[in-house]
Amino acid sequence: MLDTYGSRIVRPVVERGADRLLKWKFTPNEVTLLGGIVGVSVGFFIYNDMHWTAVILLWLSGLFDVLDGTMARRSSKTGFGTVLDLVVDRLVEIAVVIALALRYPEHMTVFLLLLASFIVAMTVFLAVGASSSRRSEKTFYYQPGILERTECFILFSLMILFPRFVGVIATIFLILEVVTISQRMLEARRILR
User: How far is CA 102 from the centre of its chain?
Assistant: First the structure.
């Protein structure tokens, strides 16, 4: 939701950052991989109770994720870049959830269900994107939803910074994922008739 509606607020800053990285001869795929390395490393810091480092690196990886897409739209957008971006995003999310599950094994069930919800949500997202004749500025149609990347990062940050409430926050995250899946399925039914 915040990605869809808030992007126009941060777009000027992101565009300047993307232009600078392009000027420095970075490719969008290099920035994607850099963001992925930073993002996956978050799991190490979560597991070792380095909460603020984990949150800062999580958001830094998110910044790289925004920059790579803007760079691609300004230079050489490729189908492979889209695939790489989606895969790296999932790897970051998986690293965070696995680290949280290992650090707080008493909440393993909700973390497993959360990972399962990610799989279902991404399946719906990709299936609708591939099936839809709608296009966006991205490679294919991106369905908006209650939970998008920014909301996920906010919830991840809350789980990292407030470990006492990790189970409650993870449960709320799971519920919001199910609502997002339902929302996207209803939209799919409407637009893919």
Answer: 21
Whole-number Å distance between alpha carbons of 169 and 8: 28
HSE toward the beta carbon, residue 79, CA cutoff 13 A? 1
pTM here?
0.88
Per-residue b or e along 150-183, where b marks 16 or more CB atoms closer than 10 Å to that residue's CB = bbbbebbbbbbeeeeebbebbbebbebbeebbeb
Question: What pLDDT, on a 0 to 100 scale, did the predictor assign at position 111?
Answer: 98
Q: Which of 190, 68, 49, 61 is nearest to 128 (CA)?
A: 190
- What stretches in the chain show pLDDT beneath 50? none
Alpha carbons 78 and 71: distance in angstroms, whole number:
11
pLDDT on residue 133 = 65
Q: Which residues contact 188 (CB under 8 A, 6 or more apart)?
A: 124, 127, 128, 131, 143
User: What gap in Å lies between CA 87 and CA 101, rounded to an integer?
Assistant: 21
